[in-house]
Design brief:
Helices cover 26% and strands 25% of the residues. The chain is of the alpha+beta class and 820 residues long.
Length: 820
């Protein structure tokens, strides 16, 4: 499961200045999202508009459609009449989807005031509050039916918190949403509900006698309680957050999966569930900033270095494997099987944001920006209405964007993240104003306690020209600290994990009122201009946006001999609609040159969220093209080469035109190529299944797993069907003689829901169109990670069928089905 920490998750962001001084906080103070207005037709303005018109209404409608609100209503009904109990379905964390959607909607109200939306939010909060027990406990997975709660909930409160109950996870999301709503509207309605639940937790969970000494199974409550401390001034919330961290690795629940294998201050490697990990690291930064516990910071610094040096995708994604949605081993960064969950990308933003607020170095924003423009917004379509859960760096059509998921954490996290983006642009410390992100906006902030108004004009990320204009300044002399991105200094990431391989030396310039600024690039990565600013002063920044090629550290086995292509902050990929050849067999030139172009990318935006009408909009994206060679085998098995023109698009824009082949990393060394294989009996057949899917073609692509743990090749499965008999057919254009079949079964246990089949068999269609079992089959093996071959008396047929009996409570899948 996953979860994102709200943009406002930055604690101090939510606080009035006097409260920050009274309580303390980060050394650097963010400029809140309420103080920054994004230009409506800009890159991010379009995203905010789509969030308002698509994502938030969609998320609210899904909460209604999937019974999220019913859970609260049923809990309220039981509290009113204990004889009424209800069967509990879904996940134990389903309560968080309304919380997260309210949070995103609260942010969007700042940009787009909407009385109807505000009224709707209030009505949902009323439903939520009705489910709260008298002592403040609010967890519908138990309250609906206390004698028979959700199977993950345990027989009493907190008994399975370190496993799967998610009681504290639900608390965390509620608190974050309630604070966002309070900040956006001034209403305490939701905030008071959240405070009552937080008070219940502080009374019942802790190290004292009579308390449940447990820590969150899924982190986020730590961050939320720190934020609640800053809003209320009540120390007990900070103490509870610190307890949750201090006792990690000391209670009964200990596992790398949830980062509870040892005390947090002793950890030095990012392990386990990537979302849980990112939220915990962010919570550690919060607690450290508020308590002065430097041991936490030293631990986070070590872990951050491990991530950016060994476990970060070029897209900024984290979490290499679907086995536990987790970090892999050092340098384990597969491409096609990359998990790189959308929620984990959001968590990565939160961690790097907090580390900037602590340390004031631009390198954290370099990672944040890389994640933001690539591995994060790739998780949502341009119209904000379809989503990715994983964000792979290679695909053969098995990945499709979905309008929702049963486990809906990624859509609802995107719902609350995008509207909070304005709060990441600027920050202040004393008489320093930090300009961290480049996007068209107008902002009001206080520098040295005095008001400064600033506007920013740019078409970033499509070009590198930015104009910062002083609209008003009452602060007099101060430092404007402009982040010079790592990519503009020929350093893609702040480590040796990736490096540019083209030898180019791009430049940048900074002018004040048309003259070269009297300033310098400081060791913190900021170009710092100190002057007495006047109304009308204009700072013009220019970054050369050369196309760059990137190589990975040779220890990253998956990327050896390959290059990635970047332009500015954007990572590019090759995708099937732009190239009328098999991009999987491409070989990029040793010294490639690129031409930039432009292509419209379609997006549907509802004209009115209360109606069914839609407006058709397009967003122009910058494309790149270069000469390359296509390697393939002819019918005689000889290797051939063909000159082709390869077109690339920004990675975030892939899979908007249907599913198919996509690659981020492309071969530049011959040894790394994968020439298109000759046609086989299976690959030329028409494939059909009892459960049609775009991934069906993967079973005839000639790619097989190296072992039972290999997830780097495409596969097909019948999930979520369980215990049923399913089938796949090959239909040939003319009768073929077949005498054997080989299957590579897909089995993702213990984490997933697919298992090798209970049994299977092969049938063929005779001349009369009747199904007949093949004769004299020697065996039907069901071995995991190995070729499972059956030989039988040769048959001549136009249709062959594979029948699969799925185990009870499991689905089945396969990587490959070859026939001879």
């Amino acid at each position: 499961m996953k979860r994102l920490l709200t943009f406002a998750a930055t604690i101090v962001m939510l606080l009035p200045t006097q409260a920050q001084k009274r309580l303390g906080g980060y050394p650097i103070t963010p400029v809140t999202f309420t103080s920054v207005k994004v230009a409506p037709n800009s890159f991010w303005g379009q995203r905010l508009e789509a969030s308002r018109k698509v994502t938030i209404p969609l998320a609210f409608s899904k909460c209604e459609e999937t019974g999220r609100y019913k859970n609260f209503e049923h809990a309220a009904a039981h509290l009113k009449d204990p004889s009424k109990v209800f069967p509990i379905t879904g996940y134990s964390f389903d309560d968080t989807d309304p919380y997260k959607t309210i949070e995103g909607a609260s942010y969007i109200l700042q940009t787009y005031p909407d009385a109807k939306l505000k009224h709707y939010i209030d009505s949902v909060i009323t439903i939520i509050g009705s489910a709260q027990e008298p002592d403040g406990y609010l967890y519908t997975a138990r309250t609906q039916n206390p004698q028979h709660p959700h199977e993950w909930a345990g027989d009493k409160r907190w008994s399975k918190e370190e496993d799967l109950s998610h009681e504290l996870y639900n608390l965390g999301h509620m608190v974050e949403a309630a604070i966002a709503h309070y900040q956006a509207t001034g209403s305490r309605h939701f905030l008071d509900i959240a405070i009552r639940y937080a008070d219940c937790v502080c009374r019942e969970v802790g190290p004292k006698p009579g308390q449940a000494c447990v820590v969150p199974g899924h982190q986020i409550a730590e961050m939320a309680l720190c934020k609640l401390y800053l809003v209320t001034g009540q120390r007990k919330y900070l103490d509870e957050a610190k307890f949750f961290l201090d006792y990690r690795g000391k209670t009964q629940g200990r596992s790398e999966y949830s980062q509870s294998h040892k005390p947090v201050v002793d950890q030095d490697e990012a392990v386990g569930h990537a979302v849980r990990a990112a939220y915990m690291y962010a919570g550690m930064a919060d607690v450290a900033a508020l308590t002065g516990d430097t041991a936490y910071i030293h631990a986070i610094d070590r872990i951050w270095d491990n991530i950016v040096s060994k476990k970060l995708y070029i897209t900024g994604g984290i979490g290499a494997t679907n086995n536990g949605e987790a970090f892999g081993a050092n340098y384990e960064l597969p491409n096609m099987s990359a998990y790189a969950e959308t929620c984990a990308a959001i968590g990565n933003v939160y961690v790097n944001y907090r580390l900037f607020l602590l340390h004031g170095e631009s390198k954290y924003y370099d990672v944040l920006e890389r994640t933001l423009y690539n591995g994060l917004i790739s998780g949502v379509s341009l119209d904000d209405g379809k989503f990715f859960y994983p964000n792979p760096l290679e695909s053969m059509g098995q990945h499709q964007r979905q309008p929702w998921f049963g486990c809906a954490c990624c859509p609802s996290n995107i719902c609350r993240f995008i509207p909070s983006l304005p709060g990441y642009v600027y920050a202040v410390k004393d008489r320093n104003l930090y300009v961290n992100l480049f996007l068209a906006n107008s902002a009001t902030m206080k520098v040295g306690g005095k008001e400064v108004k600033l506007s920013q004009e740019t078409q970033y990320p499509w070009n590198g020209d930015i104009a910062l204009k002083i609209e008003d300044n009452r602060a007099g002399r101060f430092n404007m600290k402009i982040r010079i991105p790592g990519w503009a200094k020929s350093r893609p990431v702040p480590s040796d994990l990736y490096e540019y391989s083209d030898g180019k030396r791009p430049s940048y310039s900074v002018l004040v009122n048309g003259k070269k600024a009297e300033a310098a690039l400081e060791s913190d990565g900021y170009y710092t201009i100190n002057r007495t600013w006047k109304k009308g002063d204009v700072v013009r920044i220019h970054f050369d946006m050369d196309v760059r090629t990137v190589r990975a550290n040779n220890k990253v086995v998956a990327d050896r001999g390959l290059i990635a292509v970047e332009r500015g902050p954007l990572v590019y990929c090759a995708e099937w609609p732009d190239n009328n050849f098999d991009i999987m067999g491409i070989l990029v030139n040793q010294s490639p040159t690129f031409a930039a172009g432009e292509k419209p990318m379609a997006a549907f935006i509802p004209a009115d969220r209360h109606k069914q009408l839609t407006l058709f909009k397009t967003q122009n994206i910058t494309t790149l093209s270069t000469d390359a060679q296509l390697l393939a085998y002819d019918k005689q098995g000889r290797l051939t080469t063909t000159d082709e023109r390869l077109t690339l698009i920004p990675y975030f824009a892939w899979c908007h035109r249907g599913s198919g082949n996509m690659k981020v990393w492309m071969p530049q060394d011959v040894r790394a190529t994968r020439p298109a294989t000759p046609a086989t009996l299976a690959s030329q057949a028409t494939i059909a299944s009892s459960t049609p899917s775009a991934s069906m073609k993967s079973i005839a692509d000639g790619l097989v797993p190296a072992d039972e743990n290999d997830r780097s090749v495409p596969y097909f499965h019948w999930w979520p069907k369980q215990g049923t008999t399913e089938w796949i057919t090959y239909t040939f254009t003319e009768p073929q003689q077949v005498q054997s079949a080989t299957i590579y079964w897909y089995d993702d246990l213990p984490w997933g829901g697919c298992k090798v089949p209970e049994s299977w068999n092969i049938e063929y269609q005779n001349a009369q169109g009747q199904w007949q079992p093949v004769a004299d089959a020697d065996s039907y093996p069901v071995k995991k990670g190995q070729p499972c071959t059956v030989h039988f008396t040769p048959v001549k047929t136009t249709v062959l069928r594979l029948n699969v009996k799925q185990p009870e409570k499991y689905s089945c899948g396969l990587f490959e089905w070859s026939v001879k």
